[in-house]
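Inputs:
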Amino acid sequence: MAAQKSVQPAPDSTRRSEKSRRAIYDAALALVVEVGYPKTTIEGIAARAGVGKQTIYRWWSSKADVLMEAFLDLAEQASREGGHEPYAFPDTGDLAADLKVVLRATVDELKDPRFEVPSRALAAQGVVDEQFGRQLVAKLLQPSLDLYMERLRAAQDAGQVRPGIDPRIALELFVSPLAQRWLQHTGPISYEYTDTLVDYALHGLAPR
Amino acid sequence: MAAQKSVQPAPDSTRRSEKSRRAIYDAALALVVEVGYPKTTIEGIAARAGVGKQTIYRWWSSKADVLMEAFLDLAEQASREGGHEPYAFPDTGDLAADLKVVLRATVDELKDPRFEVPSRALAAQGVVDEQFGRQLVAKLLQPSLDLYMERLRAAQDAGQVRPGIDPRIALELFVSPLAQRWLQHTGPISYEYTDTLVDYALHGLAPR
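Outputs:
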């Protein structure tokens, strides 16, 4: 049944829905870029997407929801174009190498001009609006952080990370510096930089 | 001459200037809290402070300048109240202990309700406006980062930090995680947390 369904063309209503969904995502991202998050409204998104307000409310409960899913969709598309699955993390057995690969991919994403403006608009809103910020993290950031934690736990099992280390805090030693440089323009972002973060975090600043 | 000057009461014009400066700082911080950075104007600040626009333009070239100096002044006041000089960094010879003291003081500042709203308003603007963000970092963050670098260099000279380490990147291993948790609401902030960051950064995640 499922297999047959997947080879059949989608029924007209599904195709229409998919077209509307995409128009709504595009409108939401375009508006947040043009007028900023506070002035983006469900009405504005509906008008620009050429759909009724009710179509949006049928699928999403707020503009925050629409925008975050629109952005998530954009990020997933970009991940696939970059040739990697959005929520997969390499485990070659070499922790440093795996972390460097993932952080280099993040550098590429942060430098992708399609992301730059919408992701900054959403992040800025998250700074001043805690509830929105927490939703943003839960939807956009936490799934990636979970994968780092899983990879660090596997490294702990393999004896490559000290047993007492809390993986949730450990991952911040390389994830947060990159995030702060991007958020606050505190320094340039490059592969060399993220590679260095991984080396410093794994081996420590103090002599061994 | 200088000593005599400091015990004399300030001349009237100096006192008036000081009173105006303070009124302008208070007005600027209050406005950015109430209406946000984009809607805060020099006109609005002048009206609220009860001074002419020209008084503001005599001392500052833009609203960004006024706001950053108002915030810097607030931060310096709070530092002094907290019993520590704003731009001093302990060097007891114990790097871990010194870093923990400074980061604990930063935790206190980040949790100070007087800072919370204005510093978030400024930081959010910095996320979407690179030029503003760079000014903010240069005025508010860089002086502290310079002190971390100095302390790390002293630790390098004392053989407590490996010679090849770049202090500018090294400091991010404990400064950036705290910054990201605060900016993005990615986790709670506590003394225990910043102490842990220092231990992980100095000793590394990998077994020794």
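Remarks. Chain B has eleven helices and no strands. The longest helix of chain B spans residues 130-157.
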